[in-house]
């Protein structure tokens, strides 16, 4: 595992300054799904394999053919032979390459988001828009049906999911709470509907042998990076503070990775916190017990809470500064850390980033992200993007690449995918739309779900930049 970090140099007692280091773990060398710092938007990773940027499925003939038509569009003096020639070339092009059956079609996607995920929703819509505006290499358009929920009620959520299925969606995406995730995950596996999410909000148990889990997380597992960082600094005892089940899961992974009887370090104290005041009060208690002892705090919480804890710590006269070193383990360093907040530079902080802004294509993406209107596109309009939003953006293009792989193998696989009206709901190619309330209690799975899910796990669209 190679982890690039931007960290303050030295131990907790040294002067604050930043340096770049690389941590290598031979145990995980070459395991790209476990890599922590990797290119961000359009260079992501599925839970089971790396993924990266488009462009997808370019064909040499598509661009010149389109240009030739545009050059002569609106000219009244074109001869009939030329028009016939263009039409004839187009027909032959479609006949031999199977493009015309899919170029003008739309693949419907369903999306469910929890309230409070504005930047993730914006990233999703931005990805859909960028794909649909790519006229040169696009085989199909994406049509999104978005629902924003504020309840974990299983009955209401079930009705919403079934409504999405009735729209004929090919896959589900979204970012929801642990309670909502349980229901969505269950429906996904029952009806074999692919579900792609930036991260799993709770531990997902692998299905028994022979069964496929239809939920895919874009975020790589990075608990080993936390362990490697602690080892790099030589910390013998750490304090672990977390605010969610996700943080508890990472703590469990850390415990499982440590060899019993031969642990390099120990978890001195574990505490779940619900707000900033609770965290600061807990730290004051530690300060009273051992004021001059170095304290290494692994802080696993949201970016906003982490910022407030750091600022509150620095401003609290009862808490020392030189004896503390924070390791922010929740992928919060991709968020904007305002340079004008002097408190951020008054204490040692180490963290992880998943968006590699040193890459040109990432910088180009961030420029487009910054140009978005922050009022109409909440979370955008700035030169940074959160890890969750970046992974949501990647999720769309990983799905696109999976669809492209299927179409490259069999161009007419999704032929005529528009809905056909009439009794019962079918696609024009005869595929039946999912029905949660099928007669007799039968469960009719999504016929393309297994294929799409398996192709998702094969996606590797990483480019060398």
TrEMBL record:
Residue segments, region Disordered: 1-55
Q: Which top-rank group of organisms is this from? A: Eukaryota
InterPro entries for the chain:
ANF_lig-bd_rcpt (IPR001828), Peripla_BP_I (IPR028082)
Pfam families hit by this protein: ANF_receptor
According to the UniProt record, one GO cellular component term is: membrane
Compositionally biased intervals (Polar residues): 21-35
Q: Tell me where it mainly resides.
A: membrane
SUPFAM superfamilies for this protein:
Periplasmic binding protein-like I
Q: Where is this chain's protein located in or outside the cell?
A: Membrane
Q: Does the keyword Transcription regulation apply?
A: no
Q: Which UniProt keywords apply?
A: Membrane, Transmembrane, Transmembrane helix
Q: Which residues form the Receptor ligand binding region domain?
A: 120-462
Name-wise, this protein is Receptor ligand binding region domain-containing protein
């Amino acid at each position: 595992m190679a982890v690039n970090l931007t960290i303050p140099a030295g131990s907790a007692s040294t002067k604050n300054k930043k340096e770049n280091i690389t941590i290598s773990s031979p145990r995980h060398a070459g395991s790209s799904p476990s890599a922590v710092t990797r290119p961000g938007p359009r260079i992501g990773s599925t839970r089971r394999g790396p993924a990266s940027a488009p462009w997808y499925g370019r064909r040499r003939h598509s661009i010149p053919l389109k240009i030739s038509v545009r050059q002569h569009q609106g000219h009244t003096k074109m001869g009939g032979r030329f028009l016939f020639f263009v039409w004839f070339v187009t027909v032959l092009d479609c006949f031999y390459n199977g493009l015309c059956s899919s170029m003008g079609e739309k693949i419907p996607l369903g999306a469910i988001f929890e309230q409070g995920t504005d930047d993730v929703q914006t990233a999703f819509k931005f990805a859909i828009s960028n794909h649909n505006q790519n006229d040169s290499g696009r085989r199909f358009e994406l049509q999104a049906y978005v629902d924003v929920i504020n309840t974990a009620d299983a009955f209401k959520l079930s009705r919403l999911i079934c409504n999405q299925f009735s729209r004929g969606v090919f896959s589900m995406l979204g970012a929801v709470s642990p309670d909502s995730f349980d229901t969505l995950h269950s429906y996904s596996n029952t009806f074999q509907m692919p579900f792609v999410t930036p991260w799993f909000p709770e531990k997902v148990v692998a299905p028994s042998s022979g069964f496929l889990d239809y939920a895919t997380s874009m975020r790589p597992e990075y608990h080993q990076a936390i362990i490697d960082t602690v080892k790099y600094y030589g910390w013998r005892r750490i304090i672990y503070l977390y605010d969610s089940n996700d943080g508890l899961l990472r703590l469990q992974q850390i415990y499982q990775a440590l060899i019993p009887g031969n642990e390099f370090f120990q978890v001195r104290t574990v505490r779940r916190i619900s707000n900033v005041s609770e965290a600061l009060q807990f730290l004051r208690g530690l300060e009273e017990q051992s004021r001059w002892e170095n304290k290494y705090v692994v802080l696993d919480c949201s970016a906003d809470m982490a910022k407030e804890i750091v600022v509150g710590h620095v401003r609290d006269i009862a808490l020392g500064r030189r004896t503390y070193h924070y390791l922010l383990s929740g992928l919060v360093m991709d968020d904007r850390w305002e340079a004008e907040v002097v408190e951020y530079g008054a204490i040692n902080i180490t963290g992880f980033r998943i968006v590699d802004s040193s890459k040109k294509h990432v910088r180009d993406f961030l420029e487009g992200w910054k140009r978005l209107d922050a009022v109409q596109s909440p979370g955008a309009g700035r030169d940074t993007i959160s890890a969750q939003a970046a992974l949501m953006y990647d999720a769309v293009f990983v799905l696109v690449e999976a669809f492209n792989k299927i179409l490259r193998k069999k161009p007419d696989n999704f032929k005529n995918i528009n809905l056909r009206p009439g009794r019962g709901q079918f696609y024009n190619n005869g595929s039946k739309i999912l029905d949660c309330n099928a007669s007799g209690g039968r469960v009719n799975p999504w016929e393309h779900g297994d294929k799409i899910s398996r192709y998702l796990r094969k996606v590797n669209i990483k480019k060398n930049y």
